[in-house]
Amino acid sequence: MSTLILLRHGHSEWNAKNLFTGWVDVDLNEQGVEEAGKGATMLADAGLLPDVSHTSLLRRAIRTSQIVLDGVDRHWIPVKRSWRLNERHYGALQGKDKKATLEQYGEEQFMTWRRSYDVPPPPLADDDEFSQAEDPRYAALPDELLPRTECLADVLDRMLPYWYDSIVPDLLDHRTVLVTAHGNSLRALVKHLDGLSEEAVVGLNIPTGIPLVYDLDADLKPTVKGGQYLDPAAAEAAIAAVANQGR
Ligand code: DG2
């Protein structure tokens, strides 16, 4: 049996402002720092101490994992980071207000961009202020791999090689693995773990800062479908809030 802990970063400055974020590298806000600290307490209380940490290349996930590891006295464990765990690239929506986008384009288009499995938002121009085309952290990435927009299917495609190459070996070594990432990169991972259909994943929302724990069998199949949030009541309320964002 292996243990996988999934954690969406704490509330970010742009979650608070209700802006589409994607690959824009915003920081946690005060609430997010607090959530990360609470996440650490939940893990410590459950006796879940990570042996290895995986994060995206984005500050909100990196800081969250650092706060959590510090909080459980595991600041010394190996850390691996990859762009493949980054948030879904939100294309031309990056930096846009969710409520204003909903009002401008209507419910159907808004939800198609946010939650459809295979319809990406329009691409972001390389000279846009919220583009990552010149970001040095992606300099080694071949240009054709650097996204300008992504749908969830694209995220799954680019995330799975990292899952198989980097996370699975840690799980097969029976390490307790912490993956700190994002609303949509975690939705893609949960879709894979739980074998969710393209239709079912539309309704899946992941709250910030609440650890979601999967016990995996020898074939890395979840023993409990959907895993278990360490604070189920708080998760339920926060999931509803994510679902209603923009309204
Ligand atoms: C949010 C997800 O990503 O937004 O990119 O705006 O997890 O990094 O805060 P995160 C964003 P929704 O898809 O839930 O609108």
From TrEMBL:
It comes from the Bacteria. Substrate binds at residues 8-15, 21-22, 60, 87-90, 98, 114-115, 183-184. Its EC number is 5.4.2.11. It is an enzyme of class 5 (isomerase). It catalyses: (2R)-2-phosphoglycerate = (2R)-3-phosphoglycerate. The record marks H182 as: Transition state stabilizer. SMART domains: PGAM. The keyword Isomerase applies. Keywords: Gluconeogenesis, Glycolysis, Isomerase. Belongs to the phosphoglycerate mutase family. BPG-dependent PGAM subfamily. PANTHER family: PHOSPHOGLYCERATE MUTASE. This is 2,3-bisphosphoglycerate-dependent phosphoglycerate mutase. The gene is gpmA.
